[in-house]
Write a structure and sequence with these properties.
The structure holds three protein chains of three kinds.
Chain A (H helix, E strand, L loop, with lengths): L2 H8 L1 E7 L5 H7 L3 H6 L3 E5 L12 E7 L2 E3 H12 L1 E7 L1 H5 L11 H9 L16 E6 L9 E3 L6 H12 L14
Parallel strand pairs in A: 1-2, 1-3, 3-5, 5-7
Antiparallel strand pairs in A: 4-6
Chain B lengths: L2 E5 L6 E2 L1 E7 L5 E8 L5 H4 L8 H6 L6 H16 L5 H33 L10 H7 L1 H22 L8 E2 L2 E2 L5 H28 L4 H6 L6 E6 L11 E5 L5 E6 L4 H4 E4 L8 E4 L9 E2 L2 H7 L6 H11 L12 H21 L18 E8 L2 E9 L5 E7 L1 H4 L1 H15 L7 H13 L3 E2 L12 E5 L5 E6 L2
Helix pairs in contact in B: 4-5, 4-6, 4-12, 5-6, 6-7, 7-12, 10-12, 11-12, 14-15
Chain C lengths: L20 E6 L2 E6 L4 H7 L23 E4 L6 E2 L10 E3 L3 H17 L14 H9 L15 E2 L5 E4 L8 H10 L4 E4 L6 E4 L16 H5 L5 E3 L13 H10 L4
Parallel strand pairs in C: 1-5
Antiparallel strand pairs in C: 1-2, 3-4, 3-5, 6-7, 7-10, 8-9
Helix pairs in contact in C: 2-3
Classes of the chains: A alpha/beta, B alpha+beta, C alpha+beta.
Amino acid sequence: MSEREKAMSELKTLATVWLDGCSGCHMSLLDMDERLIELSSQFQLVYSPLVDRKTFPEMVDVTLVEGAVASEDDLKKIRRIREHTRMLVSLGDCALTGNVSAMRNTCGPQPVYLRVYEQNVVQPQVPTVGVPALLDRVRPVHEVVPVDVFVPGCPPSADTIYQVLSELLAGHVPTLEGVAHFG
Amino acid sequence: MPRTIVIDPVTRLEGHGKITLELDEAGVVQDATFHVTQLRGFEKFCEGRPFYEMPNITARICGICPVSHLVASSKACDAILAVKIPPVAAHLRQVMNLAQLIQSHALSFFYLSSPDLLLGMDAPVEERSILHVAHSHPSIGADGVALRQFGQRIIELLAGRRIHPGWTVPGGVNEPLSAEKRDQIIGMIPAASAAIQRTLAWFKQSIEKFQAEIEVFANFPTLFMGLVDERGLAEYYDGALRFIDSEGNIIAGELNPANYADFIGEAVEPYTYMKFPYYKPLGYPGGTYRVGPLARLNLADRCDTPLADVEWREFRAMSPKPVLSSFHYHYARLIEMLHATEKIESLLADKAILDKHVRATASVNNLEGVGVAEAPRGTLIHHYKVDENGLITWANLVIATGHNNAAMNRGILQTARHYVQGEHVAEGMLNRVEAVVRTFDPCLSCSTHALGRMPLAVELRAPDGSLIREVRRG
Amino acid sequence: MQAGSGRFSRGGARMSAEPNVRTLTINGEEISARSDQSILEAAREHNVAIPTLCHLEGLSEVGACRLCLVEVKGARRLLPACVTQVQEGMEVTTHSPKIDRYRTMILELFFAERNHVCSVCVANGNCELQSLTLQLGMTHVEIPYQYPQLPVDASHPRFTVDHNRCVLCTRCVRVCSEIEGANTWGVMGRGATSLVITDLKQPWGDSETCTSCGKCVQVCPTGALFEKTSVGNKVRKHPEFLPYLRIMREGEQP
């Protein structure tokens, strides 16, 4: 193994995922600006919308999850991620509380389908081919799988994310209780 | 024998989609489908909310372009209030809108597409990421980070935060701009402008490496649509809608955006949650049109800021008629970044930009309002109906990326037909099918990034379903 | 131990010849308090923090939110400090792992009971419920969210009430009754089906009693009551006028 390969293999592995969210938490992550590049010397980004790795690895040290669980796909995905992750971080209000993504819970998915696909369109129909069904209720991540770290915010600020990532990379488990709030 | 190839997930996109390719007996691609696999439901769950909450709520449609939604939504609310907002407020909203254009285009170009553009479509999978580019091409990586930061910093200085900046409100904006902040923004411009021009320089030189891709990346005739001002120049905040055909003829112009429903319809297909806007007089799917940077560069022959104008004309000189290859969305994006930077500078040069009266107040005076603006990816339309107390009774959102849906689907078919043939399927070929989608820079923020139970795999199956051969990547 | 709503009951023969001062311990520290003070008042006077929500300086106490629950030696249950009068020799504990856990649970119940979407709320950043999540260190809710369907009443020309954000603290009811005197706001229903209502559950804009003074909006701790022109993150509420108004109306010291 080369020196670089050896160094890489000792790095913590990091994954990021978005479920039913707006990607704002990922954008906030990128808002760390050059701090992201600096931090990247401490981790390997093994799975993320930003990289082309297509399979979730066998075991990841830290996975940041943005977004609520809203479809059958999300559900399968988050269960698989939990199984293959040591430290699961719910990132942002959608993952923590459902937030805006869960606003459809007061009416349920049927009125949504009706409004979007049957009114005011040509070829009205509800898409079902190659697309996952919506769950009856949009749910926060911890209602579906156990979560290790909760990071509130819509989105959490880049400073908060930097703090959380730095601590995780140093081997500590951060807590945002009393530090950050929803919204 | 006939088979299906599934590319799932499509990476380095905002949001998520998957692609299925249908091949016939001879191994020729007969059909290609781009599935958007998520649905948020904003148009429904906003019903019952007070209309003045809509900017803040619809901002959460997207974390990359919340400003676009804030602007279009605020404009729809202005129409419900029946106010003409103070001129300084319109200019301030424009500054934020343009800053977002810069940041979003920087994200698309550097963070998502630069691995392909710098390292090549066939580069090893593990190298195709911005983090690797930051190490292999440090100055380009630094430019990318700096340009995205430039746009975000302007938004932050105007609104107090970068993401979901609820400073744009019905009637105007929430706070005036201070002289200190204006000076800070102006101070950042020279470096940003230099970085964009540097990028244009190396990118233009690299275009010749992609002749094959340019030929087949969604390169076909379509209409183009976007906002233009009264001079027929690109307009990102106000203006009228214009449609041109692939020859460059204006087939419909000076259209009041508030009447969008007269000429834009939406169709549904069973295989994707994203709908298909189309130009009504030509029906669906004949009325397919493209929006966004490529369209905007095609709609106007030149622009009104000096440095960008030179680039603009050079771009248009590539073809006597509108540029048709979607590969050139990348090129157009860079030119728009330059134009936006210059535009911001000229807007801030006006002393009146510091005016204190930045918001008009009123109550419900119209039971309906439409707000239209150019988002980074294309024209964005917000349309609300309210009751007399201002509670939303109906909302219709035509999202920028949605206009490109039909073109994206045709585009992957065209690309796949060229690169996917016979039994052998190379990994770089699959990347190219994804790359054509990346040129559109779609904002599928409602969509997710699916996980591989079926990772990126090509499965060759016999008619009885038994697996003959499998090629995996990643 | 006595607990009661409104002004503290002063009945009982025991009270007739009482001295004005009571001595009690809070968290092990001996303090003196006036006989007519609540545990909450005594604690705050001695810089002992107890979280509250329905309490507001200048309004009567109701003990509605239960965030101020404290342990009192000898009592079988936790008692709400705002409506419990100090007694001689009382031993009060205001913070312990058990109390903290209950307080956090109460806060989670608030969030689960209705639809609190902080990110898009007019009070985001200026909300007492949100501040409590920081104070008590709550970052997520373990109790299943109820997602009730609740109305928004925007019929009043200047104000809106969004029941999704209401925590039934009844400050609006109390200020409208005790300070303005209009008695427009009331409460109907019970438990989870409770609702604050205007007049006889008529649209606020049709109310014949409302004076549009806006006091209810100023005292509302969340984004349930707000002015229509409030948008963005610039909402500020100013209930500081209350103690002053109270003095002027009733000649009482706050």
